[in-house]
Amino acid sequence: MRMLRSIPTLAACVLAFSSSLLSAAPIDLNDGQHAVHLPDAPKRVVVLEFSFLDSLAAVDVTPVGAADDGDANRVLPRVRQAIGQWQSVGLRSQPSIEEIARLKPDLIVADLNRHQALYSDLASIAPTLLLPSRGEDYQGSLKSAELIGKALGKSAQMEARIQKNRENLKAIAQQIPAGASVLFGVAREDSFSVHGPDSYAGSVLEAIGLKVPSVRANAAPTEFVSLEQLLALDPGWLLVGHYRRPSIVDSWSKQPLWQVLGAVRNKHVAEVDGDSWARNRGVLASEQIAEDALAILKGGKAVLSQ
Amino acid sequence: MQRSFAAVGILLSGAGLFWLSLYSWSPFTLTATDAWNGLVHQGRVGGNMAYIVAQLRVPRAVCAALVGACLGLAGALMQGITRNRLASPSLFGVTAGAALGLALFSTGLVAPPFAGGALLMTCLGGALAWFTVFSLGGAWSPTTAQGRLVLAGVAVAALCAALTRLTVILVEAQAQSVLNWLAGSLANVGAAQVQLLWPCTLIGGLWALWCAPRLNLINLGEDAARSLGVGIASLRLQVFVASLLLVGASVCAVGPIGFVGLIAPNILRQFLGNDYRWLIPLSATLGAVIVLGADLLSRAVAFPVETPAGVVTALIGAPFFLFLARRAL
Amino acid sequence: MIRPRLRLWLLLGLLLLATLVSLSAGTLWLTPHTVFERLLAHDVLDFEVWNHRLPRSLIAILAGAAFGLAGAIVQGVIRNPLASPEILGVTQGAGLALTVAIISWPHLPIAWLPLVACLGGAGGALLLALYNTGVSFSGVRFALSGVAIAVTLSSVTEFLILSHPLDINTALLALTGSLWSRNWHHVALVLPFLVLIPVGLCLAKPLNLIALGDEAAHSLGTALSRTRWSAMACAVLLTSLGVGVVGPIGFIGLVAPHMARRLVGGHHQYLLPAAMLIGALLLVLADTLGRTLIAPSEIPAGVLTAVIGAPYFLWLLARFRG
């Protein structure tokens, strides 16, 4: 009798055991530096750069922690809306390992450029992806997003989102007058840094069919320029992100020489949000940049978050 | 005779560098004609190129000359009053103090809202640094070893640089901005900076010339000077205020540029001896020549990207300081 | 009237207390009881105490002690209260070597950077030695030559950084004195201090004699030149290694010897250990503050030592005027 009563329990145990075996899907991938093995789709993710936050937002995953320089407002608004709240782990350049460990993540995504020194520590807390972020261009950011999607166990969803992104950008490209030359730069109180065709914003602009002038041959992705050099570049459109107000562009615009710029005479100068265009990078950021560019070229305004 | 030759030589090279900087190393192809039109006709004749020369190049060259003059004057004054050939605004931490004042102002931490607030902050910063250095280094005691003031200056300069970094880090966690603060550059100067500089240079220069005979007497020895009726405390105060104005104005306009105040008077001493009536005006001129040259180099070195002029003067000035330190002691 | 030896013990006690505070402080405050538990457990996955705060505090203690000791030695040899290891060109040589390495070999493994920094520091010291050959030793001239070399090296460094803006972040991070990301690997790198520091402490007697003045030292039979050079070599090694591990952290070598002198007087048997302990205390304090003031963001320890040094400078100023 006892044997008969224990059979359903035994059967239940066997079923449970086999179903857990079936749903545990280990993920193996290589981030270009190391082979990473995840025993299961991660549920607690910590990311250490804005572009990785963007990738999470693309597949509707909320991280438990993110390095946000202590200021959530620096993150793209649409990324914040998609994700919700996260715990700050400090500066992107020097995130706090204590905070990261305390969150007990099962996946960490770190910046190849900045966080190499932390890699061994991070890897002992959780499987860690080391991906490029700073100095990356649009195509590179898509590759990183794909890897992150794979690590999250959401490859199909990420592929679909990236495809949608490509279509969105193509749709925007069709509405944009061909070959218009657009220059984006970031203005501080005493310097103006131009983002060339190899920079993130520049590569997105080129992806939607705009021409981005280059400061010189073999230029770095971003270069500081003086007013004289800006005059020599003479772009058709000038888009400025002000990191601090009043910025150097504000004082340049008071000079009579400012009117010599073709963009100024044709009223083709517009303000964009520096954080969205320069600091964030990723799938949603590229769409923000493209939409802003389209709005401006059609005579409207870009989205400016405060 | 030698003095007149030196004076004429420096003036000519200054004029030559000024002329060159009007049209060389530009992303545009500027010609000498454009330079002429820009300078003389202020760009109303000759089209866009001449207009660019008039609006950008001329103010920049004038600014470079004025900044150089300010720093050369300040260096000569400081060397005169301390009887120390190594005295100069950057080695004594005054430039670093002024840069800290400017950083506090520009990041909004300590920002007097009236016009001229920036100049006030740089002068205050420089004054605090000077005061600290001179007290630490025992500047006025007769037994001070020459190098002690420099050591104090280096320590204070390092402190000011660290505090500047802290200020920028607290306000904006950006690595790039910190370096921009600490390297003076002429890349973005315009008419506003010229407006700021020329009254300060004029006042400072005239004041320095007026102090020159008394500085000569001080160099004979303080007791000798006192017996000849020189009010030493009053002279110190005047030199203090004049140098602060000069250094404060130049840092406010272009940021910290070092070594000019060290190099100019020391080179001139080779030819002119220690006569401050010649040393002061010619230090101003030679300082202008040095900064004009550095500005040209800053555009030429990695054309078309600009290197900050402060880095160029440091690259030239540091080896010079090496040479001077070995000889002076 | 507390005797110097007792003061040394007090300093040691203060250091232990500061270390305990450092281990308890961070993005989350832990009670001392928890800290002891974690220490006994030594769990490799404990990223609060065992694998983060403990190695950082150990490095801070050893590096701070090294900087303090080097500062006291340098001031003893140069006999000028404003001399410090930072002005000898060692720190700047290390910085230049790091910058050149980061720019020329961007994929250099991080583990090599401390070695590069040490080599650079030794190079800077070598330049200093070469510059001073053939001239009779004068404390102030030696210090000034250090300043000249330091300034030259740092202007070359600045030029390189400004002309390679892409590598700026990595270079600046390495050039900022900070204990961020320092872990047990770096503790292994500071182990040589356990040998160097006792060697430095042996210099106490010769430094006492030097302090009496050149003639007195000569007449008492010390091989003056040899002592000076070996003392300087020791100070350079201490500073080089320290900079290699934590980056250029200033003011400890300047301020710690002064504080030590105030506490225990000028006899180097007490002065050297006191400078060590105070240096360690300063760096532990700076690191703790840096980690907690704007947590979870960090302020580099090198910036905070300057901020702590500033009031002391003004206080020094008030004393000198009197």
UniProtKB/TrEMBL annotation, chain A:
Species this protein is from: Pseudomonas extremorientalis
Signal sequence coordinates: 1-24
Subcellular location: Cell envelope
Pfam families: Peripla_BP_2
GO CC terms in record: outer membrane-bounded periplasmic space
Domain Fe/B12 periplasmic-binding stretches: 44-301
Protein name in UniProt: Iron complex transport system substrate-binding protein
Matching NCBIfam families: PRK11411.1
Family of the protein in this entry: Belongs to the bacterial solute-binding protein 8 family.
Main location class: other
Keyword Zinc found: no
Any GO BP: iron coordination entity transport
Gene name of the encoded protein: fecB
Keyword tags: Ion transport, Iron, Iron transport, Signal, Transport
Keyword RNA-binding listed: no
